[in-house]
UniProtKB/TrEMBL annotation:
Domain Integrase core: 2-93
Source organism of the structure: Cristinia sonorae
Compositionally biased residues, Acidic residues: 146-158
Sequence segments annotated as region (Disordered): 134-159
PANTHER family registered for this protein in UniProt: CLR5 DOMAIN-CONTAINING PROTEIN-RELATED (PTHR46791:SF5), EXPRESSED PROTEIN (PTHR46791)
Stated name of the protein: Integrase core domain-containing protein
Lineage of the organism: Eukaryota, Fungi, Dikarya, Basidiomycota, Agaricomycotina
Length: 293
């Protein structure tokens, strides 16, 4: 993030514990908007899958299935939020973020650069000059020195520019990390493991075929609390709960409209049903013959 956007931006919590909250209000407002517009709803939905529909958050295969079924939908929501955010009016400026970007391009033009993804302030601070500093021999000033008189061997062998750029970026990342260590006030968040339950392409293809068939046929499996007859005594919930507070006894409620979130719960049940059946077939060494899903 620092390489791409530069240091001391409002998109990162810079400074001491005293100043962080007062100097980062813009990114804090953006985080609130991201959460309220779509992230909290997905979070509440995943809690619902745990509570009602068989999700085991400690099972890496279940987390893989979450990615398989819903990652495209989550990315779509993120893109829709980004579009809305880029065109919303910004107080104290003329127009939206998209307007400001366009006017900047009109005023300053556009150019292609190998380091286009690196913030110019970072380039200036860490690179400064083009190429590595040359180490000169004793008595050599570099002012009109004849290369034949230096007594040095030939220059280093030619290296591919892509390799040099990759090495330079790696070194740049290490230097930025070292210089900004004081701003990192906690260990990186541990990401739960998720990996495919299938060891072969054949098994994965069988899963793809199975879930497409179940969805196409409109099969809704029993035992996952997604069928209408499993909710005879009460209605399917329209509110999701995100636990919080000490002991996770508090939290807040999030609206989850049935017409949006129940079909997704059904899709989860279908995916988990196919996954469980196929794993049973594989583990029983019966092989896959295209049936029994």
């Amino acid at each position: 993030m620092i390489i791409t956007r530069g240091a001391n931006r409002a998109s990162f919590m810079w400074g001491s514990g005293v100043t962080r909250s007062t100097h980062n209000n813009r990114i804090e407002r953006l985080w609130v908007e991201v959460g309220s517009q779509y992230v909290r709803a997905w979070r509440a939905f995943f809690y619902r899958l745990e509570q009602l529909h068989g999700l085991d958050a400690s099972n890496p295969h279940h987390l893989w299935l979450i990615h398989y079924l819903f990652l495209d939908d989550i990315n779509k929501d993120g893109k829709e939020f980004r579009y809305g955010w880029n065109f919303h009016p910004v107080s104290g400026t003329a127009g939206s973020p998209a307007d400001m970007r366009l006017m900047g391009q009109v005023e300053h033009g556009m150019y292609a650069d190998d380091y286009a993804d690196v913030h110019p302030g970072i380039l200036s601070s860490y690179l400064g000059v083009s190429g590595a500093v040359r180490q000169r021999s004793q008595g050599e000033t570099g002012a009109g020195q004849d290369p034949e008189e230096t007594g040095e061997d030939d220059e280093e062998p030619w290296q591919d520019s892509a390799d040099l750029r990759e090495a330079a970026l790696a070194e740049l990342q290490e230097r930025i990390q070292a210089d900004n260590e004081k701003h990192f006030n906690h260990e990186p968040v541990k990401v739960p493991r998720h990996y495919s339950p299938f060891d072969t392409d054949e098994a994965l293809n069988a899963f793809n075929e199975g879930i497409l068939g179940v969805i196409h046929e409109g099969i809704i499996p029993f035992g996952f609390d997604v069928r209408d007859e499993e909710w005879v005594d009460e209605e399917y919930p329209t509110i999701g709960h995100i636990p919080g507070g000490r002991g996770r006894t508090k939290g807040y409620d999030i609206p989850l409209p049935v017409h949006i979130w129940k079909p997704r719960a059904v899709r989860w049940a279908q995916g988990l049903h196919v996954l469980n059946r196929l794993k049973d077939i594989i583990e029983s060494s019966e092989g896959y013959n295209g049936t029994g899903i």
